[in-house]
Design a protein that fits this description.
132 residues, alpha+beta, Tetrahydropterin Synthase, Chain A, 5 strands, 34% strand, elongated, 6-carboxy-5,6,7,8-tetrahydropterin synthase, 6-carboxytetrahydropterin synthase activity, metal ion binding, lyase, zinc
């Protein structure tokens, strides 16, 4: 299996509901480093997994919808704890949608699997992985 990874970051504010979250129940900020890995069994006709420029631009576009936002005010997340795990799934779904809509170019149509990893720090991260 071949893979290609692009990286970016975004910053948010949010809070959590539930005693399990302790002081994180109060509004706080987070900066995430985001890695998106695209996988496919065979390279395309240009020997690519995906066009790296379009992949990076697509990730930047997806993250623009989250960056510098208070996620507690976002209707799409109403009633949800916007944990690192949850947000990895959100970024995955939005990237998959971009691939299916053709926004990541023709080579992206051959991508079979993808994983999204959000790193909160150098010692904690969460991922979501699935088929495209």
């Amino acid at each position: 299996m071949y893979s290609l990874t692009v990286r970016d970051h975004f910053m948010i504010a949010h809070s959590f509901n539930g005693e399990i979250f302790g002081p994180a129940q109060h509004t706080h900020g987070a900066t995430y480093v985001v890695d998106v890995t695209f996988r496919r069994e065979a390279l395309d006709a240009d020997d690519l997994v995906i066009d790296i420029g379009l992949a990076g631009a697509g990730l930047k576009d997806v993250l623009a919808g989250l960056n510098m936002r208070d996620l507690d005010e976002e209707p799409a997340f109403s009633g949800r704890n916007t944990t690192t795990e949850f947000l990895a799934g959100v970024v995955f779904e939005r990237m998959r949608e971009a691939i299916r809509a053709g926004r990541l170019g023709d080579s992206a149509r051959g991508v079979e699997g993808m994983s999204v990893t959000l790193s909160e720090s150098h010692i904690a991260w969460a991922s979501f992985e699935g088929r495209v």
